[in-house]
Amino acid sequence: MKHIKLLKLSAIFTFLSIFASCAGGARITSDSLGRATDPIPFMENARTGVLPSGMRYFLLENTQPEGRAYLTLAVNAGSVLETEEERGLAHFVEHMAFNGTARFARHELIDYLRSLGMRFGPEVNAHVSFDETVYRIEVPVETGPDGRRRIPDRALMVLDDWSRNISFNPDAVDSERLVIIEEYRFRLGARDRINRQVFPLLFRGSPYADRHPIGVLEVIENATAEQLRAFYEKWYRPENMAIIIVGILTRSTSKLL
Fold first, then answer.
1. What is the CATH number of the domain that holds 178?
2. What pLDDT score does 3 carry?
3. Would you give the end-to-end CA distance of the chain in angstroms?
């Protein structure tokens, strides 16, 4: 056992000596690192722009992994934007996106994605944080009548519906409420208890101190379909969202844009 500890100590000292010698030979300066205000260079082979509606788009042609496309809708809205009476609505809205839209009935959306071989979780998912809500789906590209590979039109419709046509059926809201309450209870572990003690200290004086993305149980238990729709319409605006598509880009992509 002592021999193993000595080997570990020797390895640590060796690493430190190598690091010190490298640092002496290649000195890091503030000039080489740049400044915090310097813009981050954008990928040269990616395309970006703003649609007439105000929504931004980011497109990247990518052939690996072969036959896959990754579609993302990013919303610049998270729990930090909630009022005291809305704590938990950003997360609730994200759940409702999978419970029906204008072109996909309550279970049809998930059934369609599963029909493509996509699993909820690894290839179909979403998350809400303090500052953002992000929806992600991975889909197989298909071969059209013209022989060209392209993203399925219906997959693009899913992103389009999430951006402006989520349904808030009261029955679906009540059903999903139980799922969110269970998720809330599942998170009541040591990490959550620590965060609720630390965040008010770290973020004192800012909304981040008490805007946990999961929300508060009182709001979750009593949120109505009308309140969820109001929050959705307030923040899911074109100028507050971006569409990101990585994979096979063909003319079908323009139908969404």
1. 3.30.830.10
2. 42
3. 64
